[in-house]
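Quick one:
INPUT:
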């Protein structure tokens, strides 16, 4: 035994000595040249920095993009475990400017929310609007879920992750946005799809990369596509093209996108089919006429001129989009330059409120279904979005967390340790769709349950009926401002039409679950 230990010690010493010698004479890293062997600890700590901060350094409400509290809520919700928190909030409510406060109503005509922790998972929250109805699209429909899965392409996410999300969407009636990477076999597990059309027209292009209407119609006919979304830009990399390096373009990815395997896959920064608001609306109407589907646009928000042009043309020409998806600058992506991820495009609440007001000023807001995207898969953010006029929300990173993402922030390296954002076959094998699909479904149903509870606490039966008057924004501990005032809304702005409000209230009344005992005999008399 002693000989073995000696041999191990000699081997370790020899290896260490070799590393020291190499470090002393290499010229690439000055740190290792000056501090051989021990300098490697710095690079090791840097490599595992995000993981170390998650569990050791950062407080519960400090880390970004998602705090430990937020991740814990998503993880426990996806597993249907106890997602309650004890001992009060650890957010710095008293001294944080901009903190939202939702104002509950003591007396209300809405049903009392059921109080048991497991109650409400079965609640159905359909959209308050029928997408495409205002413009008479043949494929107009009422989405069965106000919480849906945002656009994340196969290629950015692994096939197993896409399959888990699609199956989770099918279990909950949620829509699954394909992202701009086309429809893969992993998208065909029962979930209804929103087909996203990006600047490279992946999945609906010809051999030269041009948009191919015939191929689009074939794709729509062969998959459960409910709507088309034209991607103008996204929050984390607005007006920026993309590149999937050739080595990452597998045969499966090439088939889904309509490109050549092994070659660089480029997304331009602009669309070739239109160049301004007028030609874009022409293309929208062409796609709607040829497919019968509702057609919308997705965009981050910077300069507002284009939004004024779109709204003016819709108000005067009879052409228009059926839905608008606004992505905030805090939205995620697989890879983006730091400058774009940090500082280009407005954060969601400023972006959405400014665009919504432009359409509302022209009385178009009730004809359009508004979808919010950008860290809205948390109940408090979602409630604010609905109050500002969102009819639905799309969740991306939160859905990734529900199927195993640990926020290691390695999406751009193809080394995601949980197999979510990588094409490495060894890593993707760790994500088992049979296990993760129910977790995605549990997360969606739990978020819908909490949204229903908050709506009932605010005195309404559906989150789409929450108004800006129900939210105040704190300015430190001594003052606050109503959300209506903060975002420049007029009273009642943010709500669907009276007819849509009445219809969604009727639909929700069929599934009310009161949490109170029946009135006593004394009260009844």
């Amino acid at each position: 035994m002693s000989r073995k230990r000696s041999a191990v010690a000699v081997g370790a010493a020899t290896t260490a000595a070799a590393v020291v010698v190499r470090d002393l004479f290499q010229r690439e890293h000055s740190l290792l040249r000056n501090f051989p062997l021990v300098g490697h600890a710095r690079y090791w700590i840097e490599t595992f920095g995000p993981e170390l901060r998650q569990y050791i350094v950062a407080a519960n409400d400090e880390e970004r993009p998602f705090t430990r509290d937020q991740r814990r809520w998503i993880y426990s919700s996806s597993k249907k475990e106890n997602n309650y928190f004890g001992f009060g909030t650890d957010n710095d409510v008293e001294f944080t400017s901009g903190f939202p406060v939702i104002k509950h109503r003591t007396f209300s005509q809405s049903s009392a929310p059921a109080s048991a922790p497991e109650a409400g998972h079965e609640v159905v929250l359909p959209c308050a609007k029928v997408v495409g109805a205002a413009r008479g699209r043949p494929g107009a429909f009422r989405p069965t879920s106000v919480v849906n899965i945002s656009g994340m392409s196969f290629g950015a996410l692994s096939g197993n992750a896409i399959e888990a999300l699609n199956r989770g969407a099918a279990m909950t009636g949620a829509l699954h946005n394909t992202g701009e990477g086309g429809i893969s076999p992993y998208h065909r597990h029962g979930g209804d799809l929103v087909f996203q059309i990006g600047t490279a027209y992946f999945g609906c292009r010809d051999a030269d990369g041009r948009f191919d209407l015939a191929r689009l119609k074939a794709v729509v006919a062969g998959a459960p596509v409910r709507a088309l979304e034209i991607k103008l830009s996204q929050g984390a990399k607005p007006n920026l093209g993309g590149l999937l390096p050739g080595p990452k373009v597998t045969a499966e990815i090439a088939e889904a996108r309509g490109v050549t395997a092994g070659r660089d896959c480029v997304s331009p920064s602009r669309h070739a089919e239109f160049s301004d608001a007028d030609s874009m609306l022409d293309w929208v109407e062409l796609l709607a006429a040829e497919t019968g589907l509702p057609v919308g646009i997705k965009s981050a928000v910077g300069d507002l001129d284009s939004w004024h042009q779109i709204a003016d043309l819709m108000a005067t020409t009879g052409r228009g989009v059926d839905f608008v998806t606004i992505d905030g600058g805090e939205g995620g992506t697989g890879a983006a330059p730091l400058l774009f991820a940090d500082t280009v495009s407005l954060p969601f609440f400023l972006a959405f409120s400014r665009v919504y007001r432009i359409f509302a000023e022209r009385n178009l807001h009730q004809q359009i279904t508004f979808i919010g995207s950008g860290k809205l898969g948390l109940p408090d953010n979602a409630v604010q979005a609905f109050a500002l006029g969102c009819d639905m929300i799309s969740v991306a990173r939160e859905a990734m967390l529900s199927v195993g993402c640990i926020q290691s922030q390695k999406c751009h390296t193809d080394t995601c340790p949980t197999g979510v954002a990588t094409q490495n076959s060894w890593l993707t094998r760790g994500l088992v769709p049979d296990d993760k699909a129910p977790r995605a479904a549990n997360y969606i149903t739990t978020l819908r349950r909490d949204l229903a509870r908050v709506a009932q606490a605010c005195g309404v039966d559906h989150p789409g009926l929450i108004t800006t008057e129900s939210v105040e924004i704190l300015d430190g501990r001594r003052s606050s401002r109503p959300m209506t005032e903060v975002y420049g809304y007029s009273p009642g702005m943010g709500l669907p039409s009276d007819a849509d409000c009445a219809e969604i209230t009727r639909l929700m009344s069929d599934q009310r679950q009161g949490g109170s005992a029946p009135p006593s005999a004394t009260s009844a008399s």
